[in-house]
Amino acid sequence: MDDYACDICEENEICEEAKFYCEKCSKCYCTSCVEHHYQMHKAHKTLRIERLRNWPFGKGIENESEQSQEHKDQKLTQLCEEHDQLLPTACNVFSHQECSKVKLMADNVTDLQPSPDVDTLHEQLIQKETELENNLPSQDKSYKVTGELFNPINVAKKKTRVRHDTEYSVKIDTDSDTCWISGICATTTGELLITDMWNNKLKLLDDNYKVVTHLDFSDKPWSICRVDSSQVAVTVYDNQIHFISVTNGELVEDITFQLEHSCRGIAHHQGNLYITSGTTLYQYTVNGSLVNKLYHNNVTSCGVSPDGERIYVTSGARDQLITLSRDGAVISKMTDPVLQWNDILPGMHVTNLGQVLVCGGDSNTILQVNRDGTKRRAILATEKSGVVRPTCVYYSKHTNSIIIGMFDNENILVIVLE
């Protein structure tokens, strides 16, 4: 091996042979300078020059690549210790035949010893891993707290994206009085129908909420529900149920049942009609046959869950939403400050997905309650949205909108959700 000069002495224009090499500093040191190096860098490890094999770039193999210049495209398999060069097999045969210290690189691999620095680094990594694991619980707690802090912001963002509120007039020339929209429903294709109590009419609306046709009744219509894809049932004040179909944009009256009691709210589920009289909830078939008296109390509007397991009724006299089982047993009774009706019809609607929407007629509020009918989930609209004495509500999946009918009001309010 060639002699190498001490880098420190060389910087002071002194020529002194190097005996040690520091990998961290990438410098060579003589016997004298290495003592000063030890004092300044106690953690640095040095190698004796004669043991050095992987010499740093710039200290003897500056222009040497991984392969010899004569055989650039051949794999390096041997080491000539006399010339400190890596060789392919062919290079040994042609250029280093006289060298006595040519060895296979694989034989030298077994002589490699792990550096103390590797052990130290491994211990440091294990220590850091332990610290990170110990910090995980506190990090999780911090994330939870942060999430709780941001949650009201996210809720507020959702609220700001909610809707566009628009009022549409549904009054027509033949109306003799101010409108009172007491019921709303739609066919499966999205054609919207409304009952106008003060004007004794059923009105069909187009996509722009304009009245395109209407049907006159002999008395006041209370409520409406869909019976099949294009047929609806309407309760009328004179103890009648009218079945009406929407055909080619026209309203066609199919059949009328005369009942022995008052007819107020109405809902349909799998061939059964649920009708309130103001004091009792009845169950009928669509053919007009009485099945059962399910519940006897003050009840006005009604709705049925999509699975038929829950029947919801409103009690205007008690300001309550009452949830019944399919056989009429009381599951729950809910009171809420916004469930105030006095003399306003307490309308409600159960969507195809089971959301329960209730009108707070005297509080000017539309409320969504949970499936069990025990607590509010959200206030969907208030007087600020234009809700004034609401008497019916309907959710249209075709337009993703909530449609609200109001007492003594010629407009319906449409809230388009986003």
Describe the 3D structure.
This protein has 418 residues and is α+β, with helices and mostly antiparallel strands. The chain has helices at residues 7-11, 31-40, 89-95, 105-109, 116-160, and strands at residues 20-22, 27-29, 46-48, 78-80, 85-87, 102-104, 163-169, 181-186, 192-196, 201-205, 211-216, 221-226, 231-236, 240-247, 250-258, 266-269, 272-276, 278-285, 290-299, 302-304, 310-315, 320-325, 330-334, 348-350, 356-360, 365-369, 376-381, 390-396, 401-406, 411-417. It folds into three domains: 1-59, no CATH class; 72-107, no CATH class; 163-417, Methylamine Dehydrogenase, Chain H (7 Propeller). The protein is built from five helices and 30 strands. The strands form eight sheets. The chain has a four-stranded antiparallel sheet, with no helix packed on it. It starts with 6 loop residues before the first helix and ends with a strand. Mean pLDDT is 83; it is low at 53-70 and 156-160. GO terms for molecular function: zinc ion binding. Keywords: Metal-binding, Zinc, Zinc-finger. This is B box-type domain-containing protein. InterPro entries: 6-blade_b-propeller_TolB-like (IPR011042), Znf_B-box (IPR000315).
